[in-house]
Amino acid sequence: MSQTNTDFSPLRELSPYGSLSWIDHEGPASKQDVITRSDQFGDPIYIDALFERRKLDDSSSNRSVLRIRVPLQSETVRLSKELTTSSTAPDFLSVIPTLIFQQMCVAAENEVFEHGMESVFSLSMDSFIELYQGLAIRIISDSLASNRVDKAVAMETLHQLGLSEHEPTCDTRKDLLLQHLSSEVAMIRYGAMYGLSSMDDPGVIPEIAKAYKQETDPYLKKYMSAALEQLRETLSGA
Amino acid sequence: MASDLSQFHWEAVALRLTAFPEPHIEIDSGKWWELVVGNPPEQRVEQPRAGQIVELSTLGNGRLELQVNPVSLTWIHQKNESHPEIGGGALGEFRSVREEFCALIGKWFELDSVPNLTRLAFGAVLIQPVRDREEGLERLDKYLSAVTLDPAHSTDFSYQINRRRASKLDIKGLAINRLTKWSVTHYQSLMLHPEGSGFQTVAPTENYVRLDIDINTIPEFSGEFQRSLLPSVFGELVELGIEIAAKGDVP
After folding, report:
1. Contact across the interface for A35 and B220, Cβ inside 8 Å
2. Which of A28, A79, A142, B143 has its CA 20 to 30 A from that of A215?
3. Residue in B67, B162, B218 closest to A90 by CB
4. B224 and A31 in contact by Cβ < 8 A?
């Protein structure tokens, strides 16, 4: 892709794990959202995932893109099959989205999430789901199941799954949220609950009602009660 | 060098087209298989959570597969076995297998439902049977002008390189990655006795010179390919693969 302005303000420097940064991108729209970079010797050094900053800045003359940079020397990649910058082999392609999400989660550990406020992570999640669709949901599911995602980030991930407006993945996102209602970790249950209430689908009332009966955390129990009331109002068309 | 190499003939173990659709678009692949192949697939596997569909059928002494996911669309013709070089070698002679595969791809390019594509790749796994490791290295030495091999005293050799070239097509900014990997592979079928007495050899050792080819349009290319140009772009990728198979690792 061509960039007429390569200056950018680093948002996060997370070396050796990579970085997130905003870059001002002028010129025609890029069709390539994920590219690999090599150094002057042709050796692979990192993958760039570029997500357009659509919600905050729609100016066509000065769009900003969020760059997620994943270094290929990271431990995660060393566990993978050999990679090159130019390979199109299916094994290589399947690794990239997983690496991107892992990098998003690592970067998110340094963010403070506030209800109702956009974050770098929330914008990344929007683009990640839109770009990879069902594959994104599977990667998120596998990552959460691995227990290697920071608990606060996992909670926010579940929250963002519920907030997503990506229609084709609606059912799979809802299934994933319901699955995590029974997590052993209260933070995870809260994230799942928050995501489900954001979806405002009365169809999940039975599952939430069941989770409410089994819930032991008083704060979460109170939240579930409020969510059930909201969903029942939605059901009755109030 | 050229006349030396012309006496050797590659066999195809796998041929692949990978196409990258424009991001964020719905892909309507439901009728591709029947329109391209002419009859329904023998198997169709849907993985809704991954957004992936795989359709496949037997083709010759291998199988043809169509893999569709949000990131890439792949047609691949390959041997059925997990170690495809064993038991009867390859799909067939590279030229004939390639021509059959390219004819199928040509039909696919004609379909209106093929989405706008931003990147194309041609992949191939080719082999030449050789007597042993030493002969394999001697053969590779003829193909690899940038490397000096000592076949009698070398093992575990593997050579991978990408030599980028500008496209000869009139498409601004288009260049081609020519990624190749050269090696000598050795296969031995073994049977494990349940009584624990060890392994028993069940088939003679097979040795091959192996060439993995991945010829693809560069990821930095920011345009998309007009449908009318797809056969030409793919044709250029295939021609570059043919050149490498014929002449070796050339700049």
Report:
1. yes
2. A142
3. B67
4. yes
Q: For B105-126, give one letter per residue: b (16+ CB within 10 A) or e.
A: beebbeeeebbebbbbbbbbbb
On the CB side of A227, CA atoms within 13 Å amount to: 28
Interface predicted TM-score (ipTM) of this complex, two decimals: 0.74
For residue B215, the tally of other CB atoms under 10 A from its CB is 28
Cβ contact A35–B219 (<8 Å):
yes
Cis upstream peptide for A16 (omega within 30°): yes
For A:172-211, CB contacts with B below 8 A are 172
Across the interface, whether the CB atoms of B52 and A134 are under 8 A apart is answered: yes
CA distance A202 to A206: 9
Query: For A169-210, what is each residue's pLDDT tens digit?
Result: 999 999 999 999 999 999 999 999 999 999 999 999 999 999
The distance of B206 to chain A (nearest Cα, Å) reads 25
Task: Give the count of Cβ contacts less than 8 A between chain A and B.
Answer: 87
Is A237 near chain B, with CB under 8 Å? no
Show the 3-state SS of chain B: CHHHHHCCCCEEEEEEEEEEECCCCCCCCCCHHHHHHCCCCCEEEEEHHHCEEEEEEEECCEEEEEEECCCCEEEEEEECCCCCCCCCCCCEEHHHHHHHHHHHHHHHHCCCCCCCEEEEEEEEEEEEEECCHHHHHHHHHHHCCCCCCCHHHCCCCEEEEECCEECCCCCCCCEEEEEEEEEEEEECCEEECCCCCCEEECCCCEEEEEEEEEEEECCCCCCCECHHHHHHHHHHHHHHHHHHHHHCCCC
Contact A86 B74 (CB under 8 A): no
Report the DSSP beta bridge partners of residue A12: A20
Q: Do A135 and B23 touch (CB under 8 A)?
A: no
Residues B45-93 pLDDT 10s:
887 666 788 999 988 888 999 999 878 899 999 987 544 444 456 899 9
Where does residue B175 fall: left (phi above 0), alpha (psi -120 to 50 degrees), or beta otherwise? beta
Taking the Cβ of residue A28 and every Cβ of chain B, the question of whether any pair is shorter than 8 Å is answered with yes
